[in-house]
């Protein structure tokens, strides 16, 4: 099993969700996060005064998939989240050793 964490622009969530559902991926967790990378924040104007916003709002999507779906899921996220502009985000892939569905005690791939 593989855990895929993607940090994306908030307005791309529907496209990413649709792409994953089309692959048959049944669940995802979405968290509102703030951060910066090469984008390094931006300057905003509030009541005539400029101020630096160091942390840019993003969404972090987390899905756990079987090994056979991992490559397709990463490609689908990349394609759906890409705008071609700075700040599109990152995708991180990690191995998952074990998973358990709490309600039924199913483990491994059956749990996802």
Number of helices: 2
Oligomer: single chain
Q: How confident is the prediction overall: mean pLDDT? A: 91
- Strand sequence of the main sheet, in spatial order? 2-5-1-6
Q: How many beta strands in the DSSP annotation?
A: 6
Q: What portion of residues is helical?
A: 10-25%
Unreliable spans = none
Give a nutshell description of this structure.
The protein has 2 helices and 6 strands; from the N terminus they run βαββββαβ.
Provide the fold topology.
Blueprint lengths: L1 E7 L4 H10 L6 E7 L6 E5 L2 E5 L2 E10 L1 H15 L7 E7 L17
Antiparallel strand pairs: 1-5, 1-6, 2-5, 3-4
What does this structure look like?
This protein has two helices and six strands; from the N terminus they run E-H-E-E-E-E-H-E. It is of the alpha+beta class and 112 residues long. The chain is elongated, with a radius of gyration of 17 Å. The N and C termini lie close together (9 Å). InterPro entries: N-reg_PII, N-reg_PII-like_a/b, N-reg_PII/ATP_PRibTrfase_C, N-reg_PII_CS, N-reg_PII_urydylation_site. This is Nitrogen regulatory protein P-II. Homotrimer.
């Amino acid at each position: 099993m593989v855990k895929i964490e993607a940090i994306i622009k908030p307005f791309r969530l529907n496209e990413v969700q649709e792409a994953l559902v089309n692959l048959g991926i049944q669940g995802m967790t979405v968290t509102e996060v703030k951060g910066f990378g090469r984008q390094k924040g931006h300057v905003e104007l509030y009541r005539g005064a400029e101020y630096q916003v160091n942390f840019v709002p993003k969404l972090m999507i987390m899905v756990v998939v079987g090994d056979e779906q991992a490559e397709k899921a990463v490609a689908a996220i990349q394609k759906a989240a890409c705008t071609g502009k700075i700040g599109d985000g990152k995708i991180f892939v990690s191995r998952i050793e074990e998973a358990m569905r709490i309600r039924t005690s199913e483990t491994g791939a059956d749990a996802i």
